[in-house]
Amino acid sequence: MERTRAMREDRTRPVLAGVVTALVGFSSSFAVVIAGLRAVGATPAQAGSGLAALCLAQGIGMILLSWRHRIPLTLAWSTPGAALLVSTGAVTGGWPAAVGAFVLVGLLVLVTAAWPRLGGLVGRIPVPVAQAMLAGVLLTLCLAPVHALATRPTFVLPVLLVWLVLLRLAPRWATPAALALTIALVVVDEVRHSGLPGSSFGHLVWTTPHLTWQAVVGLAVPLFLVTMASQNVPGVAVLGTFGYRVPWRSAMTVTGIGTVLAAPVGGHAVNLAAITAALAASPDASPDPRRRWLATHVAGWCYVFLALASTWLAALVALAPAGVVEAAAGLALLGSLAGALRGAFVADGPREPAVVAFVVAASGVALGGVGAAFWALLAGLVVGAVLHRPTPPVSADTTTGDPAHP
Questions:
Q1: pTM exceeds 0.90, yes or no
Q2: Which listed site, 62, 67, 235, 265, has its alpha carbon 20 to 30 Å from 73?
Q3: 313-362 residue pLDDT tens
Q4: pLDDT at residue 123 tops 80
């Protein structure tokens, strides 16, 4: 009897872990995605289409990769990238230009798969500068709960209390619960006043991509860098801690194609998961490392089903009072902000480049139609180059040829 029960639990654990992986990944950051897409010009229908497209792209990608490689290779949308969209705002050329930038990001990821040296060039950007730029981008949304508490206390205060209590008791569910309560409060408010939006399940809206140089420089390049540095690289590291080696070319090919296909219907970027990757790759998913890929496989199917409700959810979010959903999204990004600040200012060496990058990115100022994220990265690199002191060459002993000791 005990053996039968143990076998049954061993079969069900990957399934439960997969469902949890999908629910946590979706519920903890979907509001950030919707806010980001709306910020760069998407209508509520286009934002819902983008959310659905991302669910489909990453869900199908997880199903294919986990089946092919038999490892728990989890995908996600770029949450820091969505925060970047919020800080960037509308680009020259409007929503079609933003969609064109999304397509370009996918193509750059595909280039990375075929030519790994591009990933190496991204890796040469100083980590403190890249993390400081990301921290400045995230700050915009992380301040939203403070502003919303002052303007919408009846909405925001209960959400903050639930988040705080669960942060102590069940940290994994703190952000999903806060977002769920936010949606529940919005539903109650809409029922009382104007009624809920009509059904629009799984409806995808096509936008013909268009490129402007401002969208390329100010949106596509920073989005690619943020996605690589804050999602793909950490995603490889997370799986490595559990003994799995990521098939880089295969993963970048699938995520690059997924991004290109999702972009015309609103998806901004698909990449390796960093945070939720541990949910499917840890021993909690299965004591047997060879069976944990099933958790990712199940999570992929869950994302396919979640895509059906995404467009309706985006329509509901569009009806929420100003600042309320953004406040919940800000709570979801506090952990990412803490990690970015740590990466920016813990390292040894001059801190002025990171400080400058952080300040410029947090300003949100666009120059020449190019968003602050690009200028933050450029400013940080320039200050770093000015402050860089090349290491003096080591003199050699003329008799032995060995380096001379001081």
A1: no
A2: 265
A3: 787 777 778 778 788 888 888 888 888 898 888 877 788 999 999 999 88
A4: no
3-state secondary structure the chain: CHHHHHHHHHHHHHHHHHHHHHHHHHHCCHHHHHHHHHHCCCCHHHHHHHHHHHHHHHHHHHHHHHHHHCCCCCEEECHHHHHHHHHHCCCCCHHHHHHHHHHHHHHHHHHHHHCCHHHHHHHCCCHHHHHHHHHHHHHHHHCHHHHHHHHCHHHHHHHHHHHHHHHHHCHHHHHHHHHHHHHHHHHHHHHHHCCCCCCCCCCCCCCCCCCCHHHHHHHHHHHHHHHHHHHHHHHHHHHHHCCCCCCHHHHHHHHHHHHHHHHHHCCCCEEECCCCHHHHHCCCCCCCHHHCHHHHHHHHHHHHHHHHHHHHHHHHHHCCCCCHHHHHHHHHCHHHHHHHHHHHHCCCCCCHHHHHHHHHHHHCCCECCECHHHHHHHHHHHHHHHHCCCCCCCCECCCCCCECCC
Using 50, 70 and 90 to split pLDDT, how confident is the model at 193?
low
